[in-house]
Specification:
Length: 288
């Protein structure tokens, strides 16, 4: 049996599983396609969420810590960060993994669903049936060339759809105890509205703290608790999202989009956009 390891990828590699291909999409998202057979694996409190889809085989896999069997093609496993599990792998299998940093899922919860990420938790799933998610992984992720720049935008979009699906279908209330600390729901929503309305401005921590009626120190601490990410990262993510919309609409020049989204210059916009997406704004517009 393998020794404990906090990373699912490392744990699988140490069992001798074959990594067929992988991709780091940035912003806390990565993919891997694996082959394995007649083996054992142990996941010991990984620091990321793992969504796994069996592509071939899997009928001989047993989750030993729960004595659960029933794997097979198109079966899903969802393993939240911090979980522990032991697996007996009987026979051959091929599987697709999506790895998600907790802060990335937290940002998606706030930005897409207006949900305090501290109030929800992913359900742990073993050999679950979810045809819609399986279809998205097979149809929108698997066929793409993960190394090709032309496919990276579609790959990122498909993975964000998967995050949305996980939050909609496989997350629930964390517990009966109410969430304490962080920003109140009213201040959290007002802060998000202020950021959205003032994206074209050079927003500072002081500006946001003043709008919330808090000191900058306490605001920054409470913001991260409520949004899952620091204020500067959340603002940058919103600027990038707005820029993507404007690039897709067409009409505005890159310099105009840079100013409309609060970047200091077109070069600053280009640098930040490429860091976030792997594309320059011009390349993104061309692919869109």
């Amino acid at each position: 049996m393998t020794a404990p390891n906090p990373d699912v990828r490392d744990a699988l590699s140490r069992t001798g599983a074959a990594l067929l291909r992988s991709a780091d999409l940035g912003r806390g998202l990565s993919l891997a396609e694996w082959q394995n057979r007649d083996n054992r694996a142990r996941y010991d409190r990984p620091d990321h969420h793992t969504l796994s889809l069996y592509l071939e085989g899997g009928e001989g896999v047993v989750r030993e810590d729960g004595a659960v069997s029933g794997g097979g093609p198109d079966k899903l496993c969802l393993l939240p960060a911090g979980h522990e599990s032991r697996w007996l792998i009987g026979g051959p299998l091929r599987m697709l993994h999506l790895y998600v940093a907790p802060e990335t899922l937290a940002y998606q919860a706030v930005s897409a669903l207006d949900v305090d990420p501290r109030a929800i938790a992913l359900h742990e799933l073993t050999f679950a049936e979810d045809p819609a998610t399986a279809m998205l992984m097979r149809g929108a992720v698997l066929p793409l060339d993960w190394a090709a720049g032309a496919d990276r935008m579609a790959l990122g979009s498909a993975c964000h759809l998967l995050l949305h699906a996980l939050l909609r279908r496989h997350a629930g209330a964390r517990g009966a105890r109410p969430v304490t600390g962080g920003l109140s729901p009213a201040i959290r929503r007002r802060t998000a509205e202020v950021i959205k309305a003032r994206l074209a401005e050079a927003l500072s921590l002081d500006d946001l703290a003043e709008a919330a009626g808090l000191s900058p120190f306490h605001f920054a601490k409470m913001f991260k608790a409520s949004f899952g990410v620091p204020p500067h990262r959340y603002v940058t993510e919103r600027r990038i999202a707005r820029a993507k919309d404007l690039l897709a609409e067409g009409g505005a020049s890159l310099a105009q989009i840079a100013l409309a989204c609060g970047f200091a210059s077109q070069s600053h916009f280009t640098r930040r956009f490429k860091q976030a997406t792997g594309f320059t704004p011009a390349a993104w517009r061309g692919a869109a």
